[in-house]
Amino acid sequence: MAAMLTRELTSGVQIPLVGFGTYLIPDDEAAAAVENALVTGYRHIDTAEFYNNERGVGEGLRRGLQQAGIERGDVFVTTKLWPQTHDRNKSTQETVRSLDESLNRLGVDQVDLYLIHATFGREQRLQQWQGLADAYNSGKARAIGVSNFNASHIDELIAAGLPLPHANQIELHPWSQKPGLVAYLNQKGITPIAYSSLAPLSTWRTAPGHASGKTRQMRAEGEQADSPFKRLAEKYGVSEAQFLLGWGLQNGYPVLPKSTKPERIRQNFDIDSFQIDSADMEYIRGLDRGAGLAWGEVDPVTHD
After folding, report:
1. What is the Cα–Cα distance from 179 to 261, expressed in whole angstroms?
2. Which residue, of 81, 163, 242, 267, has the greatest Cβ tally within 10 A?
3. pLDDT at residue 111, as a whole number
4. 102 in helix, strand or coil?
5. Which 8-state DSSP code applies to residue 3?
């Protein structure tokens, strides 16, 4: 079952490969979605301070634990630090306070993974990473990591004598495969976690504010009847979403599909029943378009 597939972080914590993402799920809808996900079998829930839905996620966690008959320790919970407050960067102490506030909203004593959500300035990154290290040492986070960091950002942490992240959550899908960054992360023992796994789909991020020129072009291509992912999904007898998530799974990336629709939640969880053959994996490698769609045009392999 998908729920049983895990990858071990260098902290020794097992992260389930199939997670439930909550970006763009409003706080008042998050509880029902998370509860449904846990009852379906998900054991990995991803949220963030920036998503403004931690209270709903926490309520869904409590309800889902009861409905699924499981314990808090059975569920891997991730949240993320937003690096700024009132247009200024958070200090080390403010970083620790932000985690305390997230824990309060979630209604838990610790999270399984705490991430710095984004990069702003070098000194801010170093101060905030020290705050995450303090949170890890105090037991408030079982593992710590970053998101949207490139190799040079992580090299800064190393040069400052700070511990390596356990994970880096980045945009990863067949159109943005980042082979250089993924190789760097694997060499350092940092687990790449994939977000925006479904970006090649024409329905990806249709919410207001996400219609860039690249996403409009992508949607037009995705709607074509002979699009490569439609053809490949048909070959393997799965939906396009299942195929794209399965590609991430086969690469060893934890994936974070998001939906509020019960049937889609179930379908996105059922992604370990097929194996993409080596010829098709090689074909997909040739579809890489470099920089991602969700987080600007910067290639995360390069320096800022």
Report:
1. 33
2. 81
3. 98
4. helix
5. G
Q: Is the pLDDT of residue 213 over 90?
A: no
Nearest-5° Cα angle at 101, 96 to 102:
95
Listed residue (156, 152, 158) closest to 180, CA to CA: 152
> Exposed (0-12), middle (13-18) or buried (19+): which is 120, by Cβ within 10 Å?
middle
| Residue whose structure tokens are 């977000």 | 195
Q: Which two tokens stand for residue 299?
A: 């290639």
Q: What is the DSSP letter of 7?
A: E
Q: Mind listing the pLDDT tens digit for each residue in 251-279?
A: 999 999 999 999 999 999 999 999 999 99
Residue 14, token pair as written in the block = 């097992």
Q: Which domains are present in the chain?
A: 2-201+241-285 (3.20.20.100)
| DSSP bridge partners of 145 | 115, 167
pLDDT at 225: 66
Residue 136 among the catalytic residues: no
Helices (H) and strands (E) in the chain, counts: 11, 11
Catalytic residue from among 23, 42, 51, 236: 51
Q: Are 115 and 145 in contact (CB under 8 A)?
A: yes
Q: What mean pLDDT is predicted for residues 132-144?
A: 98
Nearest to 145 by CA among 111, 169, 173, 172: 169
